[in-house]
Design brief:
alpha+beta; Structural Genomics Hypothetical 15.5 Kd Protein In mrcA-pckA Intergenic Region, Chain A; 7 helices; Alpha-Beta Plaits; Pseudouridine synthase; 4-stranded antiparallel beta sheet
């Protein structure tokens, strides 16, 4: 028996539309902004069916099939749905992937490459971008000059930036450690340009920045500029994140 015959909770229906998490949907329901078939619903736990018309603020929602897609982002694409300046966006790279409307989870700078997740699952998006979940990200960093040991230790112990102190989870020289320009950094902070700002604060320029791990997902068998759908196992893993 599927959702269309037994109905699903209203908050899940709203979350499936990709606009927010179930918890946030409950708050919206309580405000009286949600209508089902033209009737305002404020009772949590209300069930709806695929034939029902659910709207928020008068706008009808689409209860789409959840989609989870992983892109290996190349340089010179910005992480946004559209750009008034006409620059290339990551949406161009996934435009023919599915009929559902999907959005990037978090962002990567224009010149940062690597893993970028797309989904229409508002709950997963909230989970993977909220600081309390400590989502693990690993970056491969190439600097303009070797990272000296004293600066390595400063980063390891925590760096004071203009918006507060930041401490990486782990830092190591990449490969065999001979090339001190190549660094591996594990971090869970989602602050804007955080990796670049850490090294810039110590007068290093980040020449290349590549996200190689995001929330347990890796770049294995995913060439730059290409995308793939997540496996059932990967989706279950993301949903189990607490």
């Amino acid at each position: 028996m599927n959702d269309s015959s037994i109905g699903i909770r209203l908050n899940k229906y709203i979350a499936n539309s990709g606009i927010c998490s179930r918890r946030e949907a409950d708050k919206i329901i309580e405000t009286g902004d949600v209508s089902v078939n033209g009737k305002v619903i404020t009772e949590l736990g209300t069930k709806v069916f695929s034939s029902d018309k659910v709207s928020i603020g008068g706008k009808i929602l689409k209860n789409e099939k959840p989609v989870y897609l992983l892109l290996n982002k190349p340089k010179n694409y910005i992480t946004t749905a559209s750009d008034p300046q006409g620059r290339k966006t990551v949406m161009l790279l996934v435009k023919n992937a599915c009929k559902e409307r999907i959005f990037p989870v978090g962002r990567l700078d224009r010149n940062t490459t690597g893993l970028l997740l797309f989904t229409n699952d508002g709950e997963i998006t909230t989970k993977l971008t909220h600081p309390k979940h400590n989502i693990r990200k690993i970056y491969h960093v190439i600097l303009d000059k070797p990272l000296i040991s004293s600066d390595f230790n400063k980063i390891s112990q925590g760096i004071e930036l203009e918006d507060g102190k930041i401490k990486v989870d782990e830092i190591a020289y990449a490969g065999d450690g001979k090339d001190k320009k190549e660094i591996g950094v594990q971090i869970h902070s989602g602050k804007n340009r955080i990796i670049r700002r850490i090294f810039e604060s110590l007068e290093y320029e980040v020449v290349r920045l590549d996200r190689v791990v995001f929330a347990g997902l890796t770049k294995k068998d995913l060439p730059k500029g290409k995308w793939r759908f997540l496996t059932k196992e990967e989706i279950l893993f993301l949903k189990r994140i607490q």
